[in-house]
Structure formats: C-alpha cells, structure tokens
Specification:
Blueprint (H helix, E strand, L loop, with lengths): L13 E4 L2 E7 L7 E7 L2 E6 L7 H10 L3 E5 L14 H11 L4 E4 L3 H9 L6 E3 L8 H5 L9
Parallel strand pairs: 4-5, 5-6, 6-7
Antiparallel strand pairs: 1-2, 2-3, 3-4
C-alpha cells in the first residue's frame, strides 16, 4: 500500500495528500462504501458514487460542507425500483438539499441513458462520461475547465 494512503477506519476521517484535504463519508450500499469530499485551494468537490440515498449523518455533514461541485450516483431513470443506486429523482433531490449548482451524474445505466435521449436534465445537472477528468487546475479555476473527450 502506498505509504501516503491509509485504510479508512471511520467515516468523517480527514486526511491530507499533498495539497488535497480529503474526508471520507458514509454512503448507503450493500457493502461498506465511502464517498469522498475533496478540497483544494478553497474549492470543494463531493464524490458520492455507489449509494442509494444518503445517510442522515452524511447529509448533515454535506450540507455544512457546501461543495462547489457534486458528483453523484444516478444509475436509473425516474421511479425505477433499483437497489444500491439512485434514480434520477433521488439524485436531484439530494443535490437540491446540498444547495449545489454544479452537479455531475455518474454510474449511468443503459435505461437512464435511453431516458435522457428524450428528457433534458435540469440546469446545472450534467451527465458525466467516460474519460471525463477533473484536474487540479479545475479546482483552481473554480470547477469550470474540465476536459471532455
């Protein structure tokens, strides 16, 4: 194991890697799963993948964290009865509670992809895609210059 990384023992544990401040947060999944809040140069990103909803303690933390960008699990179209992953309505509702205006949906299923062909996403909600990168420069520019391939 890289000596700069250690196993997360408890949620809300914060550690630092170079100039990145990282906090692990609990998520809802069939297996132990963490999301990550990453801060650099005063900008904050919350990465919340592999979750169905958000535990209350995590939601309370995220509301106080005030992420500039949220990358959130959104596997299914609205009202889909799936497990371990959010549908579109759930993901959007979570991000509304976080009062975040820059959202990326990830962990997309074919069903959601087909749904989105005929249904636009709300303003500020973006569909993440394979090979999308967020660089340190992205943090410094205020999350405005991500690379899309």
């Amino acid at each position: 194991m890289n000596p700069r990384f250690k196993k997360i023992e408890n949620p809300f544990q914060t550690f630092q890697v170079d100039d990145l401040i990282i906090t692990a947060v609990s998520l809802n999944h069939s297996k132990l799963t963490y999301g990550y809040c990453i801060e650099h140069a005063g900008k904050r990103l919350a990465y919340l993948c592999d979750t169905k909803g958000i535990p209350k303690k995590t939601l309370d933390f995220l509301i106080q964290y005030k992420a500039d960008t949220v990358i959130i699990d959104c596997t299914y179209p609205p009202n889909f009865k799936g497990y371990n992953h959010n549908d579109l309505n759930e993901a959007i509702e979570i991000t509304k509670q976080l009062n975040c205006l820059n959202i990326y949906l990830t962990h997309i299923s074919h069903e959601l992809d087909c749904y989105l062909m005929d249904n636009p996403l709300p303003r500020g909600v973006n569909l993440a895609m394979d090979l999308l990168e967020f660089s340190i420069d992205y943090f410094e520019a205020g999350f405005s210059n991500c690379k899309k391939y």
